[in-house]
Amino acid sequence: MQFFKIFTKSSFSTKILYYSFYLITFFYLLYLGPIKIGRDSFHYLDNSVIRSPIYPFFLDVYSYIFGDWYRPLIAINFVFAIFAIFFFLKTLTEKISLPDTIIFIFSVILLTPYFFGDYKFANRILTEGLCYPLYIIGISFFLKYLFQKDYKSFFCFLFCLFFLVLTRRQFLFLYPVIIFMIFYLFFVFKDKKKLLVSFFTFILIALSAEIFERYYRYVKYENFSAPPFFGIQFLVAPLYLSEKKDENVFENIEERKTFNEFFSLMELKMANIKDFKNSRNSNFYHHYMANYNIIAWNIIHKNLNERNFNWFEIDEITSSMGFKLIINDPIKHLKLYFFGLKQMFGGYYLMVFYMMTFLFAIIFSILKKDRLAFLLLFSYLCSFSNFILVSIVEVPIMRYSIYTEVIQIIVFQIIFYGFFVRIRK
To answer: Which of 108, 287, 329, 362 could be stapled to 276 by a disulfide with Cβ–Cβ 3.0 to 4.6 Å?
Structure first.
């Protein structure tokens, strides 16, 4: 029970108020009931070949116990989230003294994806129900490692990372962050041997996760490969930017035929960049966002599926076509990619603000060894790495950015509180 005592400075009545919020939210989500609508949910329920193994396995176990009754899943997701949030806040307050009011506000921010907006993580049959809490727990362990030099916490973090990557491959964005942080600590601190052990342990876990992912697919589908969905995602942007003359890029007759079929369908659905001026979209990137799923599912996948290609063949074809189109004119693809990054940052001004504060975080972390600057640097690296990875194959939506955004908001709140209320130790 000590674990749940994160509000240590408030009166009994105030604590009742805080805990009442969690209970009201819980019963509100139960009242809403399960939300299963969506292609992704059916992919997980059907153990689709394009999905990583952990979440379909979790749903198989759940279905074995509860069948098609999905209301208990809401309770499981919500309780897991509360556990993760309390664990994170308890870790945070071990090094930073915060009043209970601020701790409660942080808990509400972290819980926002469960009760606000379209994506109610506890109610949907999507990986976020597992990934979001597991990510928060993993970040808690990694912060312990960074600030307390607790190497056991690093191994706990790697354990979380292993399951995160095998649930949702988006979390590959953590790999460069970990490498950067280990190398930073290697040059700042004296204990080189333990840091080298940490680095090679991370490499071992990363390789193990990739081998497990591929071996799972080999056992089940006789194909030793990653999820065969990268190609479709990768081809969407090049197709959107393509012109009729780009058929000459493809020497292979089948690829040229496929491109022409795609291009004709895009013209019919007005899903090409040249059509954005005749749409209601304010700019070409908003037009791209509006047509992303149309191009991916109603054009690419539907066409190749009707021609009886399996997922592995579809992935091979689309990956090859995507690379050829990008190499043919990399500048216009970089422009679209930049607009995607800008969208994820929230616009030009916020992008400039992030870059400036990122530089300050680097300077203060290296020269002053300031704890808050180091925390800001870590949160920025997570956000940037996530944005860069997602922008390659997807359009920016909350499902992809929320993991790093909530941590970023809390770090800004801590810095604001630290400088203006002087709570730093």
So the answer is: 287
**How far is the C-alpha of 163 from the C-alpha of 212, rounded, in Å?**
11
Chain position carrying tokens 């993580």:
121
Which tens digits make up the pLDDT trace of 249-272? Answer: 999 999 999 999 999 999 999 999
Cβ neighbour number for residue 403 with a 10 Å cutoff? 26
What's the whole-model pTM score? 0.93
Report the pLDDT averaged over residues 310-336.
94
